[in-house]
């Protein structure tokens, strides 16, 4: 039978999601914990979206096949018993064999949190991006309009990106401020490697008045990574999870969503 899990994690201590020979990735830690809980040599999982080193997960979704039948609450509590303190399974759900955590997703969501302060972060180190020059909301909102819809995002693509096409569709970009913290929410059908962090680099340049809002359109039309701003820090980036059709009956949030500013 096939089981889906919702997983949240702080990415600060890890070399990204995807398994590596070092064993210091979120996937490695999760699969090791699952193997211990299932009392088997190995469990292999697939994920909805890989994250880079330092990037956090509010609701990563994974699936794997298992012959074991256990209560859903047992999968959560039992796996968490073997996980590090900064990774936790939030929910579990049996799904049909036709479900695929990546292919069944109709969209994906990311959130970026930025501290706007003359003083660097301390308590929230590793969990927020930081700017010490103030950001202006209006020009960033204007700039975001240029990115919506189906576009060629080559200018925001990492050189190591393995996606077959740079054509992606951004459905929503929402910008809000909560005290000293800016919140940028992105929803799209899929994202390129470093796409959000490269967009954020440009957004910060525009918000600080170094570039005009129309510069975002010029960067997009250039279809050249050299046209964009430097890649922004991974610290404040959160994978908010995939979007699925209601027919699958899977949760679309975790309690961690309420923790963000």
Layout of secondary structure:
Layout (H helix, E strand, L loop, with lengths): L1 E8 L16 H13 L7 E2 L8 E10 L6 H9 L6 E9 L11 E10 L12 E3 L5 H9 L3 E4 L14 E12 L2 E8 L6 H13 L7 H8 L14 E7 L18
Parallel strand pairs: 3-10, 5-6
Antiparallel strand pairs: 1-3, 1-4, 2-3, 5-9, 5-10, 7-8, 8-9
Helix pairs in contact: 1-2, 3-4
What does the model show?
There is one protein chain. The protein is of the alpha+beta class and 261 residues long. The chain has helices spanning 26-38, 72-80, 137-145, 195-207, 215-222, and strands at 2-9, 46-47, 56-65, 87-95, 107-116, 129-131, 149-152, 167-178, 181-188, 237-243. Strands 1, 2, 3, 4, 5, 6, 7, 8, 9 and 10 form a 10-stranded mixed sheet that branches. The chain is globular and about 55 Å long. The protein starts with a strand and ends in an 18-residue tail after the last strand. The mean pLDDT is 96.
What is the helix tally? Answer: 5
Per DSSP E runs of 2 or more residues, the count of β-strands stands at 10
Helix content: 10-25%
| Fourth-level CATH superfamily of the largest domain | Pseudouridine synthase I, catalytic domain, C-terminal subdomain
Average pLDDT taken over every residue = 96
CATH topology group of the largest domain? Alpha-Beta Plaits
User: Rounded to an integer, what's the Rg over CA atoms?
Assistant: 19 Å
- Span from first to last CA? 38 Å
Main beta-sheet annotation: 10 strands, mixed
């Amino acid at each position: 039978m096939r089981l889906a899990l919702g997983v949240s994690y702080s990415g600060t201590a890890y070399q990204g999601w995807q398994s590596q020979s070092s064993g210091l990735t979120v996937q490695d830690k999760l699969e090791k914990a699952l193997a211990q809980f299932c009392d088997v040599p190995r469990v292999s999982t697939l994920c909805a979206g890989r994250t880079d080193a330092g990037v956090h997960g509010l609701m990563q979704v994974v699936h794997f096949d298992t012959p074991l039948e256990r209560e859903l609450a047992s999968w959560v509590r039992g796996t968490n018993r073997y996980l590090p303190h900064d990774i936790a399974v939030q929910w579990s759900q049996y799904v049909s064999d036709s479900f695929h955590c990546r292919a069944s997703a109709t969209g994906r969501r990311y959130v970026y949190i930025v501290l706007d302060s003359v003083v660097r972060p301390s308590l929230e180190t590793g969990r927020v991006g930081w700017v010490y020059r103030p950001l202006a909301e209006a020009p960033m909102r204007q700039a975001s309009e240029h990115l919506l819809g189906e576009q060629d995002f080559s200018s925001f693509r990492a050189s190591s990106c393995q996606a077959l096409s740079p054509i992606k569709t951004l459905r929503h970009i929402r910008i809000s401020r909560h005290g000293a913290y800016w919140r940028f929410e992105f929803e799209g059908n899929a994202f390129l490697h470093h796409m959000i962090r490269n967009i954020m680099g440009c957004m910060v340049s525009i918000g600080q008045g170094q570039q005009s809002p129309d510069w975002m359109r010029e960067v997009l039309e250039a279809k050249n990574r050299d046209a964009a701003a430097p890649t922004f820090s991974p610290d404040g980036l959160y994978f908010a999870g995939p979007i699925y059709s209601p027919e699958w009956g899977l949760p679309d949030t975790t309690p961690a969503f309420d923790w963000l500013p």
